Structures are given as C-alpha cells and as structure tokens.
Amino acid sequence: MTQTTQKSAFITGASKGIGHAVAQALIADGYAVTITSRNADEIAQVAAGLGADARGVACDVKDPRAVQAAVDAHVAAFGGLDVLFVNAGVGHFGNVADLSIEQWQDVIDTNLSGAFYTVKAAIPALSARGGYIFTLSSLAGKNPLPGGGAYNASKFGLNGLSEVLNLDLRDRGIKVTQIMPGSVATHFGGHTPDQDKDAWKIQPEDLAQLTVDLLHMPERTLPSRVEVRPSRPPKK
Fold first, then answer.
1. How many whole angstroms separate alpha carbon 219 and alpha carbon 51?
2. Longest dimension (CA), the chain
3. Separation between Cα atoms, residue 228 and residue 153, nearest integer Å
4. Contact 230, 201 (CB under 8 A)
5. Quick check: is 234 in a domain?
6. Does the annotation mark 132 as catalytic?
7. What sign does the dihedral 176-23-64-183 (CA atoms) show?
8. Is 46 a domain residue?
9. CB within 8 A of 94, min separation 6: which ones?
C-alpha cells in the first residue's frame, strides 16, 4: 500500500466520533490515512471499514516511543505526511479535592503530553511537505467549569501549545489550527449519542467538514483558532 504522491493524514483517537469522521472526510477528499486507538482489534476493524486508503494502528499517545513508531510506519507506508490531526483525549471530572492523582495524570498525559509527543514525532515529515497540524481542543480551553480541574488544565495547556507551535513551525511551512468545539454528539465521557436527543449538538461530521474546508483555504491565509458552538442550544 506504499504511496508516493497521494496526500496522507495521521489521526489519533479515531476509532469513533470526531477522529473517525475526519478520517472519512479526508479519504473522500483524496487522502490516505492512518488512524490510531489504544484498542488494536477495534482500530483494525474500523480501518477495514474505511477501505483501502486507511491503516489502523494500535497506539497509546501517552507512550512517546509508540507514537514515534506509528508515525514512522505511516511515513514508510505512504511516502510522507501532509496532515496531522491530534484528537486523542480523555476526561475525568470531579472536585479537585476528590480527583485522584491517577485521574489527573491520565488526562494531562493523554490530552497534553500526548499531543506534544504526536506533534514532535511528526514535525520532520510535515516539514518535508509543508504540512498542516490540527489540534482538537475545546471551549473548555478558555472557559473553566466546576469539576473540570484536569480537563480544563489539559485544554488550556493544549491551546497554549498550539499557539506556540504556530510561532515555532511557520518558518518550516507548517500551518497549525486549534479547533475548539462546544457540545459534540460523541461517546466522550461515556455518553451514548442519541440521534434525537443530540440533534442540537455539533455533529462529528460538522467538524470533519470544517477540517476539509480549512485545508482548502488559500495558502496565504491561516485561521489559527476556530471556536465552534451549537447554533441553537436548548434554553436553560
């Protein structure tokens, strides 16, 4: 399946939800993709469902060596890397007094350190082609919420990292956009999406379409931070 001319993308946390929708949209736009998840059987099955232009790789973004190996394998398979979509994330919520050390570490190590490891591994390949990095943040990256100590900290940090990446990488020809959605109809936090009850929420395919649209922006233009909200949330 080695490709030398087809554009390619590496997407973390893509077994379902936003990452999976982005993979579908990029394949439809002509990209080959590598999708990752911690669950080997699940990601292999999802990749098979996406077709011949998809590879599924088991990878825990908390492990920098695993991330580097996954990115290197992608470059070997497709001949390069054009788009990195940093999506893997977890959430543990609760009063700081009750939040365990293990929960804090899981959120920070996945959402923030995992993003750093992924970007770090991909920079050489992205530099070679003048690639594009998307970091999937959240409106929780600017709006604190009760019980959000770990999650808020990880997303505030991810926004800061994304802004620095713009400054550090633009001379390498790499664009960076942080996407900050509000309520999205995904499985995040143990939620089971419901077609009727979640109809008002942002849908994963909406963010996938946004990603493709950003990739087609003129080269001279960079929307570096995009906040996305449901247009008509329920009245409180």
1. 30
2. 53
3. 20
4. yes
5. no
6. no
7. positive
8. yes
9. 103, 147, 149
Residue 58 inside a domain? The answer is yes
Task: Supply the range of the domain harboring residue 73.
Answer: 8-224
Catalytic residue among 31, 117, 132, 151: 151
Return the structure tokens found at 143: 């709006």
Q: What is the CATH number of the domain that holds 26?
A: 3.40.50.720
94: left (phi over 0), alpha (psi -120 to 50) or beta: left
Number of domains in the chain: 1
Q: What residues in the chain have per-residue pLDDT under 70?
A: 1-4
Distances (CA, A) of 115 to 23, 59, 155: 18, 13, 11
Residue 3 lies in a domain: no
Tell me the residue type at 40: A
Amino acid at 222: L
Q: What is the pLDDT of residues 158-184, one digit of tens each?
A: 999 999 999 999 999 999 999 999 989
Helix/strand/coil for 149 = helix
Q: Encode pLDDT of 60-84 as tens digits.
A: 999 999 999 999 999 999 999 999 9
